[in-house]
UniProtKB/TrEMBL annotation, chain A:
It is found in: Nucleus, Nucleolus. InterPro entries: NIP7_N (IPR040598), Nip7_N_euk (IPR055359), PUA (IPR002478), PUA-like_sf (IPR015947), PUA_sf (IPR036974), Ribosomal_synth_fac_NIP7 (IPR016686), UPF0113_PUA (IPR005155). Interacts with pre-ribosome complex. The keyword DNA-binding does not apply. SMART domains: PUA. GO terms for cellular component: nucleolus. Pfam families: pre-PUA_NIP7, UPF0113. GO terms for biological process: ribosome assembly. Signal peptide: none annotated. This is 60S ribosome subunit biogenesis protein NIP7. Residues 95-170 form the PUA domain. It comes from Gigaspora margarita.
UniProtKB/TrEMBL annotation, chain B:
This is Ribosome biogenesis regulatory protein. The keyword Nucleus applies. The keyword Nucleotide-binding does not apply. InterPro entries: Ribosom_reg (IPR007023). It holds the Pfam family RRS1. Keywords: Nucleus, Ribosome biogenesis. It comes from Gigaspora margarita. Residues 174-203, 229-252 are annotated as: Disordered. Belongs to the RRS1 family. Involved in ribosomal large subunit assembly.
Amino acid sequence: MRPLTEDETKVFFEKLTKYIGKNVLHLVDRSDETYYFRLHNEKVYYVSDSMLRQAVSIGRDQLASLGVCFGKFTKSKKFKLHITALDYLAQYAKYKLWIKPNGEGSFLYGNHVLKAHIGRITEDTPEHQGVIIFSMSDIPLGFGVTARSTVEIRKLKPTDIVAFHQADIGEYLREQDTLF
Amino acid sequence: MDVSAQLEAQKSKFKSINVEKQVSLQFDLGLLASFDTNALEENKLKTETDNYLKSYTRDGTQLLINEIFQLPLTSVQDVGVVVELPKIVTAIPREKPLPKPKPPTRWERFAKLKGIKKNKKSKLIYDEEKGEWVPRWGYKGANDDGSNEWLVPVPDNADPFEDQFTKLREAKKERISKNEARRRRNMDEAETGETQKLENKSKAGAKALKKTELHQQISVAKTSTASLGKFDKPIKGEPSNTKGVKRKFEPNIGDIQKEKEARLNILNKIIDKKGEVLNVRKAIAKNHQEN
């Protein structure tokens, strides 16, 4: 376990800002308790101060996980967000997309979001923007990247892809070995 | 009887072999040619063109023949007196253009890149076993793989039922076919102009390679002193030596404030770089609402 280096922080924050923009500030600078980002086994964890102090006494090999896993660094040093970060992303999301109940199942199996499945979308969402995907009852289901801007979506056919799947809560079942 | 008068009469019939010229002529006896650089007399050329040119040519020819007779004469039976002409001096332009240089093969390109020079070896080498000189390669050559011998030793860890003769023969066949394939590839590349492209590419690569090699050499040389280069003066533009430098990370629990500030700094940089894109539609809508 160690703090992120400058380069790693940059890559990580760049990825986060795609989804929550400036709101990353609220993750770094919290009023309740100090929270840190820590790297362990190439995964980035969001840890409170008290938990960190307890975790330092556990050996590197013995420490399986701590805090909330935000994602991992790939071998080529890119950052991949995990679904476990969804709670924080949903909280601070800038652009949102709601899908109808008939599209929920499809999305939770890892498929892209089609136009027919959209219930609502944040106005003025640009193209290739990270969006958080909610069910109609405002339960966060995952996140993705828009394929088209809001204006362009209106012209699409119902079977066209609107948002590319990045992560969904179905992964809690499908990828439970590597997720945390 | 006095023949001198007769001789004199005979001599007067022919023109003299002595010709006077202001500027002496240049000769290329190999080509049987003489070059006259004297100016022509314009009056004579206009009034009696034919006669003048004839006599002019005769004079030149006379001088050429005089020159030839000064060469060492040899007499050959049945032929007579013979002269051996010297080599041609005048440079004559060649009829066909120079042949294009052969496009280099892959090996030649590689050798050039690496600075490998071809050094000529003698064709024969001394075979101490046989006690005689044998060709370096080829028929009964020194590099013979032994498949033509009556006995081939079985290597220690080889399968005892394997035929070593066929093994050697097959290996040779493979070598030959591999070489042939390379030759074909070289020909193909030369034909399609691929060689030129590759060469241009490797020229650029060679420079980069030289640079990295130089950097490596510098870093080796720098650390080759007793103090591992600790007290050496730095060279201008010296490559930074990242070898042997240990990674260093910040402590896990350190200065909270400092860490937070560092993170915020990075974050601000990212946000600044991206900037807030002005949403035109939204701006117009807002403007309308306000008015």
